[in-house]
Amino acid sequence: MNETAFETRLVTLSSSQRKDDAASSSTNFYVSMANSSGAIRDRVIGVSIESVGFVNFIENVRPKNTSITVVYFNGFVTTETNFAIPSGIYDDIGLSVVLQESIYTYVFGGIGPVLFTVEAVHPQNGNPAYINMRMLQPAPAYIQLVYSKVGLPYIIGMKETETFITSISPSRDFRPNLYGALAVTLNSRALTSSHHSVDHEGNPTGVMITIPVDQAYGNIVSMHVDGASRPTVSIGDDRNLSGFDISLRHYDDGELVDLSGGEMYVTLRYWLYST
User: Percent of the chain scored above 70 by pLDDT?
Assistant: First the structure.
């Protein structure tokens, strides 16, 4: 009886090895592994992930969450203003300073006294810090922060549109969402297919593994997968592979992760028929 023999190979791919073109980045790249015959090896039948690593340079306020709409009534005229703060790494103090300065500049025109304050508060009883916003201009003037699921209202911690008017509700407290990325996914279209990886609606994706972002900004996120828990893609029909496409994406919306130029690596094990 003939028995089928298999071999395995390890390969470590780094974003620093990527093909240099306008479409590539440190989290979206292709690494050619072609040999003289034009393929890594004939008859590749499966691939698994051994380890992944990158430096956590992921901003906790991403570009999609930087804008907000503010309605201001000065007692005579109502104006609606949309502005955005810079994306980046914020704590509650930094967020409150930038938000107050932006409202003063864009809503009040950067002139006159401060009529709306934003302050980070750190309780002494061990409770989480929060941001307090307060309207100082007398009624009937008011400020309204317009709610949206995506944007600066999400970062602030808003649950609905908030109206500040001194005679009714001059002040509000918010617990900002500044924890940053919870997880990212490692993706490869070359190594997955529609029946291997789908999203919550059944649409095909290239996801191979979800990686918890369990290190603070500036630290190394490293994941080594052992034994039976190692995610494996069975390609099905054996085929030749000339390289690997790799991308690192946010788990919640599929957007490419921005590592601010930082590099990443992934170690793969692939199976092939012995020759």
Answer: 81
- As annotated, the residues of the chain forming the CATH 2.60.120 domain(s) are 6-58+181-273
Q: What is the dihedral of CA 226, 216, 149, 250, to 10 degrees?
A: -40
pLDDT tens profile 127-168: 889 999 999 999 999 999 999 999 999 999 999 999 999 999
If pLDDT is split at 50, 70 and 90, which confidence band does 213 have? very high
Distance CA 64, CA 87 (A): 9
In whole angstroms, give the CA distance from residue 101 to residue 95: 10
- For residues 96 and 157, is the Cβ–Cβ distance under 8 A? no
Classify residue 13 by burial, with Cβ atoms within 10 Å: 0-12, 13-18, 19+: buried
The 3 state secondary structure assigned to the chain is CCCCCEEEEEEEEEHHHCCCCCCCECCEEEEECCCCCCCCCCCEEEEEEEEEEEECCCCCECHHHCEEEEEEECCCCEEEEEEECCCECCCHHHHHHHHHHHHHHHHCCCCCCCCEEEEEECCCCCCCCEEEEEECCCCCCEEEEECCCCCHHHHHCCCCCEEEECCCECEEEECCCCCCCCEEEEECCCCCCCCCCECCCCCECCEEEEEECCCCCCCEEEEECCHHHCCEEEEEEEECCCEEEEEEEECCCCCECCCCCCCEEEEEEEEEECC
User: According to CATH, what is the number of the domain 6-58+181-273?
Assistant: 2.60.120
Question: What is d(CA 11, CA 35) in angstroms, rounded to the nearest whole number?
Answer: 14
Instruction: Give the length of the chain.
Output: 275
Do 187 and 247 touch, CB atoms closer than 8 A? Answer: yes
